[in-house]
Amino acid sequence: MVRYGLVIDLAKCIGCRSCVAACKNENFVQPGNYWNFVLEYEQGRYPNVRRIFVPINCQHCENPPCVKACPVKAISKNEYGVVLIDYDKCKGYRYCIAACPYGVIHFIDKEKTLYPNGEKTPYEAIPAEARHPLHRKKPGISEKCTLCWHRIEKALKEGKKPGSDYDTSPACVPVCPAGARYFGDLDDPNSEVSKLIASRRAIQLKKEYGTRPQVYYLV
Amino acid sequence: MRFKFAVLLAIAALFLFAACTQKPEVKEVVKEKVVEKEVPMNLWDTAEKIRSGEIDVGDEYGMELGKRWHNIHAEVLGLKCSYCHISSYADDFVYQRKYKLPVRGAPGVVDRAICLGCHKQNGPAKELYMNAGVEGVMNR
């Protein structure tokens, strides 16, 4: 079995938000919504204070509550472990947003453009039919991180190994200047992600919900 | 000087004697009427009645007031707004949409830990969350 996931090294993350910007750019995420976000926390007492940055995106859980909550079964987990929303089936009921304990699903209330006057940038003006189905978003639906499935799917079709280079990895992984993000097959014991999880202290967020996320954080 | 001190001491002793000899008032204890409180609803029965349609919560799915979600939680279960909608998250709370207000002016943010009480594995409500440590059950 193949189960794609992420490993994020919190000791390396400097909170630059390159991953956030790369994701927004790659996935046509409109202003106000984000598939990837960096939370900041302050630890300690003056003068021994430090900031911790926690990049958070869809955890692509093994037991995804969003899949169970959706009344129209618009969310599913594919054979590679990636949880995806079908925009054609989604009716915007937002039960997935209510169920997700990580808050990674966003609702597209109305179309927003980068320019406040509504004028579209050349990038935003790319018609829906010219985009990958996962980028054909419209008002009234929910959206979230897809682990750049469009890149992984293309790599698999071309016979390349996902995660082997820039174009076959999720956009947030290769852009990290600190090298804090890793992508790979969690079921492959020889993959970099598996070795990191085995050799370092790796945690999952909100284990009490029993979601079994496929994103691990090295602390 | 000694005389004045003796006079003050005598006055203090007099007050002390008066205080000690006062009888406590006996108040009649009036038993309050015992008001029978409503028996808390059985969540399991209520959930079953909703699933079977015995309790009509509407067919319109959605998070807005008047639609199914709030009909179940606010109307049938009687959860107060403040039970779910908190004013802010704790500083160390991990939640991606932590700084984003809900759409359509919904009051405050919702702490998802509230949902875990009923929507847990083998809970009364629709099972959304599993017990920690349960193997993945989703078909891939």
**Uncertain spans of chain B:** 26-39
| Terminal Cα span of chain B | 99 Å
Rg of chain B: 30 Å
Strand order of the largest sheet of chain B: 1-2
Spatial shape of chain A: globular
Lateral strand order in the biggest sheet of chain A: 8-1-10-9
SSE series of chain A? EHEEHEEHEEHEHEE
Note the beta-strand portion of chain B.
Answer: under 5%
Write the layout of secondary structure elements.
The complex is a heterodimer of chains A (219) and B (140).
Chain A: E1 4-9, H1 18-26, E2 36-45, E3 48-57, H2 65-69, E4 75-77, E5 83-85, H3 95-99, E6 106-108, E7 141-143, H4 149-157, E8 181-185, H5 192-199, E9 202-203, E10 215-218
Parallel strand pairs in A: 1-10
Antiparallel strand pairs in A: 1-8, 2-3, 4-5, 6-7, 9-10
Chain B: H1 2-21, H2 43-52, H3 68-76, H4 81-84, E1 85-86, E2 109-110, H5 113-116
Antiparallel strand pairs in B: 1-2
Describe this structure in words.
- The complex is a heterodimer of chains A (219) and B (140).
- With 219 residues, chain A is α+β, with helices and mostly antiparallel strands.
- Chain A has 5 helices and 10 strands.
- In chain A, strands 8-1-10-9 form a 4-stranded mixed β-sheet, with helices on one face.
- The model of chain A has no long low-confidence stretch (mean pLDDT 95).
- Chain B is an all-alpha fold.
- In chain B, 34% of the residues lie in helices and 3% in strands.
- Chain B is built from 5 helices and 2 strands; from the N terminus they run ααααββα.
- Chain B has helices at residues 2-21, 43-52, 68-76, 81-84, 113-116; strands at 85-86, 109-110.
- In chain B, strands 1-2 form a two-stranded antiparallel sheet.
- The chains are: A alpha+beta (219), B mainly alpha (140).
- At the A-B interface, β2, β3, α2 and α3 of A face loops of B.
